[in-house]
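Q: I'm a student working through a structural biology exercise. My instructor gave each of us a protein and asked us to get a predicted structure, then write a short paragraph describing it. Mine is SAM-dependent methyltransferase. I'm not confident about reading structure output yet, so if you can add a plain explanation after the tokens, that would really help. Here is the sequence I was given:
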Amino acid sequence: MHWRIKGLIQKALGPLPGGEALHYRLQRRFGGLQNFHRELSVKVEDWQIMVRHLRDAGVAISSSHFFEIGTGWYPTFPFALYLAGARRITTYDLIRHLQDDLVRAAVKELGGFLKVIAEDSGSDLAEVQARYGMLATAVDAGADLSEATGGRILYSAPADATATALADGEVDVVFSNSVLEHVPPEAITAMYRESMRILSPGGIMFHSVNCGDHYSYVDSKIHQLNYLRYSDRAWKLWNNAFLYQNRMRAHEFVEGAAALGFKIELDTSTARANRLEQLAAMKVDSRFAQVPPERLCITSVDFIARNPA
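A: Happy to help. First, here is the predicted structure for SAM-dependent methyltransferase. I'll explain a few features afterward.
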């Protein structure tokens, strides 16, 4: 599909009554949710990456309270953390996207990843299997996330991650996966401030950001730097309720956290040769012209920012 066609379809659906439900059905039939096994497998791989980084940072999953920004259609990360033995997982979504059929499908698919979850989290496999058995039975019986997990997963939507109901210092880890690139810059700053408030002394933020043009996933004729061609005014046409992209570069996410007093302990941003070549072959908008190519071309970053208090 040409990326502009997808953009116009999503733009048209946004203001329609029932547009959210129709968009979901289109994703299930024609979009990324067609192959749910592959979709969830990618999410599990992302979770594995996060957990390995957290273990390297000294996070003990079993004693930690996690706060997720952006639950989405199905709660892969909260479920995997629950299975790994996390003390509590609070997950917020600004809009309620959670879909009951995908929640059940996610639980079913996770049954094939129990060994992976145990190994990467350092948990006992028998305990992971026991938790999974209780989770699967409860979800099949129609229990909500809190009921199915004995109160360990707390889901709130609509809920604002810039002004949470959590107490000062209540959380050990704040995290997101492929969310911050879809958030207005001023809201990201507010999220960072709120994260500093709710994090315990020494607590950390882990964010994995996919800061490339997401339209490239549906149109093979463009690459992940394509959206840098456009002015803010021109790009406003293609931003929509279902695929808002702030076009922030990787260093801005990391430096924004550092500017608020976080200590940066991990920054995986890397300038890749193919991205530098793609950038050299295109004309970028004046908004991005002053950014060094080795920064501008980066399309993903994982980073850990610690509350130094």
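A: Here are two points you could use in your paragraph. The domain at 35-306 is CATH 3.40.50.150 (Rossmann fold). The radius of gyration is 20 Å. It's a good idea to check both against the output above yourself.
Q: Great, thank you!
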